[in-house]
TrEMBL record:
Swiss-Prot/TrEMBL keywords: Cytoplasm, Methyltransferase, rRNA processing, S-adenosyl-L-methionine, Transferase
UniProt EC number: 2.1.1.177
Similarity section: Belongs to the RNA methyltransferase RlmH family.
Main subcellular location of this protein, as a coarse class: cytoplasm
Record localization: Cytoplasm
Keyword Transferase: yes
Residues annotated as binding S-adenosyl-L-methionine: L73, G105, L124, S125, K126, M127, T128, F129
PANTHER family membership: METHYLTRANSFERASE (PTHR33603), RIBOSOMAL RNA LARGE SUBUNIT METHYLTRANSFERASE H (PTHR33603:SF1)
Quaternary structure and partners: Homodimer.
Pfam family, one: SPOUT_MTase
Alphabetical list of InterPro entries matching this protein: Alpha/beta_knot_MTases (IPR029028), RlmH-like (IPR003742), tRNA_m1G_MTases_N (IPR029026)
Name of protein: Ribosomal RNA large subunit methyltransferase H
Known catalytic reactions: pseudouridine(1915) in 23S rRNA + S-adenosyl-L-methionine = N(3)-methylpseudouridine(1915) in 23S rRNA + S-adenosyl-L-homocysteine + H(+)
Encoding gene (name): rlmH
Amino acid sequence: MTIKLLAIGKTDNKELVSLIEDYKKRLGFYIKFTLEIIPDIKKVKNLSQAQQKEKEGELILNKINTTDVLILLDEKGKELNSISFSNYLQKHMNSGIKQLVFVIGGPYGFSQEVLKKANGKISLSKMTFSHQMIRLFFVEQLYRGFTILRNEPYHHH
């Protein structure tokens, strides 16, 4: 199985990029993981929030294969602790799917089309974080999830 994280807009903070890269490297020991950045939409000043969500939704759906399992990272999603998240990952790996795709949406959330296509939604927190921080938190939790599944000590540090 491959895990892909789709995110809108590049991370311009070098320290965050470095930390994300570190976790991406660590994840490589456990699973094939890719982080794909969808470029920010140009000329958003001329678009309503709904139009921006629609355009972002089209870009997201263009990156999804019909066989992918699509999970949205959404504040209204199901909250899991780290152990529950590791079990969630294991369940998906056991199901025989080819690719599990997690998506961090744009600033206004997801379009109706993306919401319809999604197989589930999970929340990393009730708090709101910047889209750049969420990437780091997500790759760290992914890594933590695999160390839990392997009974490695990282989880307790």
